[in-house]
C-alpha cells in the first residue's frame, strides 16, 4: 500500500503496489528426501548466475557451486528438514519513499531492499504412513 492510500483504498488487488510495478516475484518448491541431495537452479533466460548467491536464513551453510551456468546447492539430509530461500545480491531492488509515494529515481529515504526474484525451498523428510490426510472416495 502506498502512503497516499492511507484511507484504506488502493488500486492493486493485494495493496502492495510497488511489487506489481517492478515485477517482483516469488516461487517455491517442496520435496521430500532422506539422503543428501543437490538442488540445481537455472535461470529461465539462460544467463549464468553471479557468484553472489544468498541463502537465508544465514545459519544455513550449504555447499554451493556453479556448474555450466547453474547454481548447485548441496542440501544435507536432516530429520527436521530445511526451509530456506535463495536470492542473489545482483538481483536486488531498493525501495525509496519520498513522502508522497514510492520512487525509483534515487531520491527519498530507503524503506526496504528485496530481491527481484526469490525461490523458497522446503526440503522435508518423508511423512510417516499414519500422517497422510484422509481421502474421501
From TrEMBL:
GO molecular function: hydrolase activity, hydrolyzing O-glycosyl compounds
UniProt entry tagged with the keyword Hydrolase: yes
Keywords from the UniProt entry: Hydrolase
Residue stretches making up the Glycoside hydrolase family 49 N-terminal domain: 8-124
InterPro entries assigned to the protein according to its UniProt record, in alphabetical order: Dextranase_N-ter, Glyco_hydro_49_N_dom
Highest rank taxon of the organism: Eukaryota
Cross-referenced Pfam families: Glyco_hydro_49N
Keyword Hydrolase attached: yes
Protein name: Glycoside hydrolase
Amino acid at each position: 500500500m502506498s502512503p497516499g492510500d492511507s484511507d484504506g483504498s488502493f488500486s492493486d488487488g493485494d495493496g502492495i503496489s510497488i511489487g506489481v510495478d517492478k515485477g517482483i516475484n516469488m516461487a517455491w518448491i517442496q520435496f521430500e528426501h532422506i539422503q543428501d541431495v543437490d538442488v540445481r537452479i537455472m535461470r529461465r533466460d539462460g544467463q549464468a548466475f553471479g557468484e553472489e548467491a544468498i541463502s537465508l536464513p544465514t545459519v544455513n551453510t550449504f555447499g554451493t557451486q556453479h556448474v555450466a551456468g547453474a547454481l548447485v546447492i548441496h542440501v544435507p539430509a536432516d530429520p527436521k528438514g530445511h526451509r530456506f530461500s535463495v536470492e542473489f545480491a545482483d538481483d536486488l531492488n531498493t525501495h525509496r519513499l519520498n513522502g508522497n509515494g514510492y520512487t525509483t529515481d534515487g531520491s527519498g529515504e530507503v524503506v526496504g531492499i528485496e530481491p527481484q526474484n526469490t525461490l523458497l525451498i522446503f526440503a522435508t523428510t518423508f511423512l510417516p504412513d499414519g500422517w497422510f490426510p484422509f481421502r474421501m472416495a
